[in-house]
Every structure is written in structure tokens, then in C-alpha cells.
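Email to the structure team, subject: GCN5-related protein N-acetyltransferase model.

Hi all, the expression group asked for a predicted structure before they design truncation constructs. Nothing fancy, just the C-alpha cells so they can compare against earlier work. One-line instruction: predict GCN5-related protein N-acetyltransferase, return C-alpha cells.
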Amino acid sequence: MTDLRLAPIAERADPPATLPPLTAGGLSWRPATAADAADLLALRNAVAVADDAPYRETEAEVADLFAASWRDFSTDSLLGYDEANVLRAYALADTRPGDTGTVRAFLWGAVHPERRGEGIGREVLAWLVGRGRQLLAASGKDVPARLVTYAEDDAPGSQHRMFEHAGFEARRFYSDLRRDLEVSVPDIRLGEGLRLVPWSPELDEPTRLAHNDAFRDHWGSEPQDTETWTSGRSEFAPAWSGLVLDTAPDVERLLGADDTDAETAASLRAGAPLVVGYQLASRYDSDFDVRGYRFGYTDALGVRRAYRGRRIAPALLSAAMRAFAADGMRYAVLDVDTANPTGAAGLYASLGYEKVSGSRMYSIEL
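Reply from the structure team: attached below.
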């Protein structure tokens, strides 16, 4: 619902008529294309090495960026090359078509460690903020708006200062957690009518509906359409992913509930399977050497709001831990919003997860 106290998004976003020039460092700038995936990968990983980030990307992960139809790289990206035609900096502004409660512009960018201190990063960020404001204004969605970027907690202090100087504020904090799989994993039984099954393609759409329901009350979450839900899965591990089904749902009660969303209601009327919880995992082999151990990663975990309190999440996590361990992983790893409203941090602690590192979200609220 539109907040009548808000000015129109076209005014609040305050989009610049023209974007600021990028002149620092004498780089040559042009929009990115899919053919630049290898260059972009080399740059992003060079930054990750210099900043001691706990990850390294693969070319498939970078190629995923270009596969999404909603991204327009011709207008929303820039690559900065030096005289030797080596990529030294990049910028990418990204909006999501399904945003309804808050329209967001995600701002991504980096400068090669060898070219820091020349003012390139400040100009990249200024360009990103300007382009982000233009995208928000062009959305036509008169709802709250947000410019978003992220940083590891232990990233160089200059990065945090640059964001703060540009008007960003650290608003959300995330903990990277791990759980030793050499410690016994609890056997958690589900209640009557609930059945844990492997992820399968035919259950992916019911899982998307479960996700949108599970995250409706999470700060910063917006509904995902089919394309955004299925994008970015180059490292997805179906064999490590599980779902919980209600095999005999009370359809009449669910259809009569005020908070059953329209898509779920249509699915129930059509007799589709009802996914009530899910754990989707990925295998990031390129990170094993960086972290110094093999691990399975839980990318997404959620339980439908009407099914909370029935031990569904612990059952899914325990099943994932057993799957990880069976494939020779030493740890189970995941990331959690420290202000998660469902008490997730307490759940993870009860299952033996411990904090390893952290990151934060910076934003400008409009």
C-alpha cells in the first residue's frame, strides 16, 4: 500500500539529470557485456584476495549476473580499463522487478588493489548513487525506497569511511556461522502430516511460494518472481537441499486465513503440493582453500508463518548436516541477519553453529 505521507518516488529519489563523470586514474570506461565475465571475475577475485574476504567467485557465478533479463548492462554498468586494456574498476546498479513494499537499488563496485588511493572508488560510488537514484525514480513505485550496498566487517576502513561519507548508514548486520560436522547431529522427527523430501524441479515453484510467505515479515525482504527466484544458481546443490511438505493440509482453513497470499491460495485451489519449509544449499568449492576447510552452505532456510513452532527448521538443518557430512564436508555454514524476527540466531546456536565473521548492509533510505 502506498504511504500517503511520502512524496512521489520521482521527487524523493532526486535523480540527477546527468551522471557524474569518471576521470580519476585515467581509465577508459564502457558498459559491461557478457563477454567481459572473465575480466570481471579476475578483478573481483583480486579485490577478495587483497581484502582477505572469505570467498572467491567462479566464472559461472559472474556469468549468472548477465543471464538475468531485468539487468540492463548497457545503462546500469561501467567497466574501467587502463592503457594496457586491463580491467581496473567496475560499477553495477541493480534493481529487482518484484519489489512492492520497498523499491531497492543495489550498488556494486570495486577498484583493483593496485589502483586504490587515486580517487577512483569515490567516483565509482558517486556514479552508482546517481544511477541508483535514476532507477528508483524511473520505477514509478511510490513506496519507500532504498539505495543498498554491502561490506565485510573487517573490510579496509577506507571502504567503510567512503560509504559513510557518501551518506550511507550501516543498518543491518549479518553473522557468518559454522557448525562442526564431527559433532553428532540431532535426529529431529516431524509431526503428523509433515514429510521431509529432497528438493526437485517440480517442487521449486511451491518452494518459491513458501519463501515469499516465510519472509514477508523480514526487514528488507521483497517477494520474488519466478525469474529472480531461479537466477544465480550456478553453485546450487540439489542433493543437499530439502523440503518439508504438508501431505494433508487444511485447505479450507488456509484459504480462510487473512494472511494467506493470493498466489498460495491459487496453488491450494489447484491442488498443488504445499511446501511449508525449505533448506536450499550450495557447494562453493572455490572457497574451500580460502577458508581452510570443506563445507556445505545453506543459502536459504524458511518456514511458512502458519507452520512455525513445529520443529521444521531444525529438521531441515539436521538433514542438511547429514548430507554435507556424507559428502565429506567438515562444516555446515550459513549467514544470518542478527535482527532476524523469527529467533533464527537462537535456533542456530542451539544446533551448535558458531560465529566466524560478519558483514553489514549500508543504505540510504528515501
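The radius of gyration is 22 Å. The CA atoms of residues 22 and 123 lie 6 Å apart. Ping us if the truncation boundaries need rechecking.
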